[in-house]
Every structure is written in structure tokens, then in C-alpha cells.
Amino acid sequence: RAMNLRFVPEAAYSVLKSVDVLVVGGGSSGAMASIQAAKEGMHTLLIDGNPGMGGTGTFGGVDSYWFGRRNGFAAKITQKVDAVQKSIHYKGHKWNIEAKIFAWLDESLKAGTEHLFNAITFGAITKNSRLCGSVVATRWGAFCILSEVLIDATGDGDIAAYAGADYVYGSKADQTVMWYSLAQFMEPGKTKNNFTSMVNVSDVEDVTRAIMSGRRRAVVPLHDHSIYVATRESRHIVGDVTMSLPDQLLHRLWEDVINIHFSNHDVKGVSGADWVNVGLLPPNLEIEIPYRMLLPQGLEGILLAGKAISATHDALPAIRMQSDLENLGGVVALAAAYSVKNKVTPRNVDIKFLQKRLIEEELLPEIVIHRKLQPLIYSNNELAELVDRIEEQPLYEYSNMRMNEVFTEPIPFAEICCIGPRVIPYLEASLRQSQGSKQIRIAQALAMYESDIGVPELVNEIMESLQGDSLPIRTAEIMYVTQPPDHGAMPDVAYLLYSLAQTKDKRCIPVWNRLAELLHPTEDDFKDPYLGLYYYIDALCKGAERLGDSDAVPALLKLHGIPYLSRQQYSSGPQADYFLERRAMLELSIGRALARCGEHKGYEILIEYLSDARSLLKQQAHTELIRLTEENLPLQKQVWQQWLEHHRKGIKPCPQQMRLDV
User: Fold this and answer.
1) What's the pTM?
2) What is the rounded radius of gyration, in angstroms, for the C-alpha atoms of the chain?
3) Which among 5, 321, 335, 427 would be 20 to 30 A from 329, CA to CA?
């Protein structure tokens, strides 16, 4: 139904052009890639579905940098934009969107790039495993563009996906993605980001729904809306290397580093990673990007740029900053030019040669050429010392940094939880000898290994916090937090509930029963950034999913009895209130947990969502039904209802085994 076409025979359409480098997508990465490839002497063509260049940073209305390094190629386009703005006497503190569109286009034309605007790519041209070009739809017909090297800068990995590359949409666990933005123009030239809910770019009906919903979400009278849905996240194309959040927390270095990105953990929605859920909100990190992240597995003749590079859902937030993606576009352009000039595939580019050029462009430090990387192996004494240094302060304090600060020190909790089972005896010994916050942190570290040794300490701490008549609220000030769920900002006890959830221990059940007793939310409670209601409910569900025990069913049914957590399915049309989707996400969590605990009501909830108008919620329900049953039945509500009627008596508990970004 939606973008199922992957392969298009070359003979089906006429060839409009043959070029050295074809750049598909003219956003932050693609615009820069088209300029740099042309400057390298490549016959370069840029295709974009918008009527100009810049993507999220222009037509998407995100008119300023957030984090990200401002050096190299990004610094050059900033200088150009500043010059344009000076010439028109612009005085704003953010960039003028039209000025940046003009700056991109002017630099691109000067470099010699050719352009096709208002053009949509809808197929990949391949010969065996090699990308040879793309098929482009225009109002005047469809054409083939052939290329020696193709740069997929769509931001969604469209071309790689058309060519058959493996990908994960959002989170591997549940298809959750960061919120999209349909920017609002408060007045001419002044935009406001509008981070609201999720969208599936692979589904034209869902994209349409997202646009219609976004146009109904203003809280004050507006001048206009953006013409472009700016997705923070969609497909993650599987490359030769996939970056994970632990890679970032451990400051991992790479032999084939080609760029350095810089950010906090700017998740703009639900993270879901165990690291974040237990409270480790990452600090501002400089993150090395290996070249292999840009190479889709099994494909030749193609390079990835933009936010579809090979990373997990929880690794993306820190590497998607606009200035870093602008620099990445320049990097892939240099790699593409080397490939064409030397008649090798992008996979066989001389990395050392590329790194030397990137040092000249001030994107890499000179040390990357000479350093020798070795794995870090702790001795027994070093392990004991590391465990002794485990953090006593809240783990979320790492995120409390100014924007220009860079964190470079080891994170003991992350180091401990990535070493492997060898560290467990040291943690157990420390648990017996410690007290207070250090003992709780040791118990959390053990839980990251699914150890139940620290369960009594976690249970006691949580139950003490739940003695009152209401749920504890978040007292810590965490930077850059918007409406929940966002940035993993939650009450301290919720972090402990997520840790307890990892232990798969029946001693969790009294805690969940107590939590369910305290849940009497109003509609406004779901919007309170300090109450953390989303996290309380999700932590209970995550624990029940992993335990998979029928004794957890009463607490889950009590949750589902809350009016705002049942019957949240939505069958058609736009939704102005985006919190309805967030409540539906919680109902799906309850449904998954009930099903994992062997309760047929969970299956009924999941099956109801198969007809939901919100594509990713529907996909999540279908994926979970397939995982539960190992039956690859189609996404049709009636088919699954028939399955449930036939198998209802045989439903049994089925604990969830999937770990999240560990």
C-alpha cells in the first residue's frame, strides 16, 4: 500500500542524465554534499522534493543550531548565511530561512551542481548489489538518473531501503521514534518548533494524518505552517557498523573515524534505553563517527548521510545535530569523489587518505592518523577500584552541563555495566559492604545484569518512597525538558522501578500492586512534567513484560481500568491533542505486558490497535503479536481475532527477553 516498490527495471523509464555523483535529498547533509562533490570536480546532481535546499533547517522551520560542532564545512555555510543576512539588513538572533535557502543554492550553483526540485525519488536502479542511480517522479513524468556513486541524504534512507537494505524503523523494540515537527509561523519569518508525536514516512496516509494533525495544534493564532514535516527519526539503515548508546557512554574510538559529532542526549520523546530508564542521562559528549556507519550492508555504490546512518534509536539523539550533519555531508562528498576518481567502490576508499583530507578541513585532529587503538581490559584490582568509584550522586546529574561544556571523563556506572559477568562478584561484595545511595547504585548495576541479588535493597527503597497517599514527583531540575515523556526526566523512584523491572523477580509484584493503588490520574496529570506519570506506568509494564507471570495481571488490569488508559484506539482522521497518542502508547504497553503474562486481554488490546489510524502504533501491535505467537499472520484485525478465538485456551505466559541498547 505505501511505498512497497523497491526495484525498478532500467528499461521502464528514459534516462534523463548520467552523472558522477547523485545526491538524493537536499537537507543539512545533502545540500553540503552536493556543494563539496561539485567542488571536487564531480558532475553532481541534487534531487529534492522541496522547492529549494536546506530541508529541516529551512522548509522544516528549525532555524537555529542546537548542539553540534561549528567547524569545517558548517562554518563556511554559516559565514555565507551571515553575509546574506547582512546584505538584507536582517537582525534576528536565528537565521532567516530564506537567507539560508539562498545561501545554499548560491554556493551550490557556484560549485557547478545541477538541481531537480519538486522531484520525488521512488525507486533504486541496481545491477546486482550495486546502486546505479534512482528513478525520479515529476509532474511531467518519471525519469532515470544514472550515477557512479549515489549519496542517500534523504534523512530516511529511502534509496537504500528501495535497494533492499536492511533497516530498523525507530526503536527495534517497539517502532517508537522521536517526535516530528510541523513548524508554526508565529508571524512572517518567525517560526516555532512543534514537537508533538510520531509519524511513519513509509505510509503516505500516516504522513497526511501527521500534516493534518500538525496544522491543528496551535495554542495561539498563527500566520502559517511549514510546508515540510521535519522528522527527527525514521529508518536506521543497517550499515557495516551500527553505533549504540554504550559506544557513546564509553567514549569509543574508531580506526576509521571520519567525523566528530557533539551533543547532549537530545531525545525529543521516549528513549526506552535501559541506561536512560535507570537514570543515566548522558552528558555532553564528543562522538566519533566511523566510516562504516555510512555503508549499507550488502550494497555497493552508495553512501549514507544524514540521520539514517547506521545507529540505534538511542544512539541517534546525540549525533543528529544540524551542523554535524552538514559536516557529514561534506565528508561523504569527499569519499564519493575519491571513489569516482580512483574507480573504486565507496567501501574501498582509502580511509587514511580521507582522514588526512579531513584533518586539512579541520574536522579531525591529527592524532587519528598515528594513534594505535587497543581494547581496555581491567585487571582484578582495577575492577575492585572501579566498583568502589561507582557514583553516589544521581546518575542524571551527568546531564547538568552548559552547552559549551564537553564531558571527557569515564562514567564508572557505564564502564561497570559493560564489562560483562566478570564484574558481578565485585558488585555483590560491594553491595554487602555499602549503604545508602552507593548501595542502591550497586543494586542498580546488578540489575543491569538481570541479577536479583540487589532486589531487597531496591524494593525497600521504593516501598519507602511509596508510603504516602500520592506518587512522589520529580524534584530534580533537568535541563531542556519539555512536555512528558521527554529526556528521561522522571521522579527518582521511577528510575528505581525501571531497575527493578530488569531483575525478573516475583518480589516486584507487591511493589507494582502498591504503585497501582496510588494511580488515580486526572487528564491533566499526563501533561505534568514533574509528576512523571508516563514513566511510572511504563516502568510497571516493562517489569511485568520481562517477568511474564500471571500474578502481575491484577496490577496491570487495574492500570487498564483507568479511563485514560483504555479504549485509546483511534480509527481515522487527524488528532489535535497529541497526548491522546501518548496515552495510547501506554495502553499498548499495558497490552504487551498482559499478553506476556498470559492474559488474553492483552492480546485483545493488541488486536484492537491493528485498525488504528496511527501507523506506528498499528505496526507495534502487529510486531508484538508476531513475536508472541511466532505466527507471521498479515496485519488484519479479523485474521488475528480468529487466531485468538482458536488459541484462547492455550495462551501461556511468555516473558520478554529483549534488552534495550545494552
Assistant:
1) 0.96
2) 25
3) 5
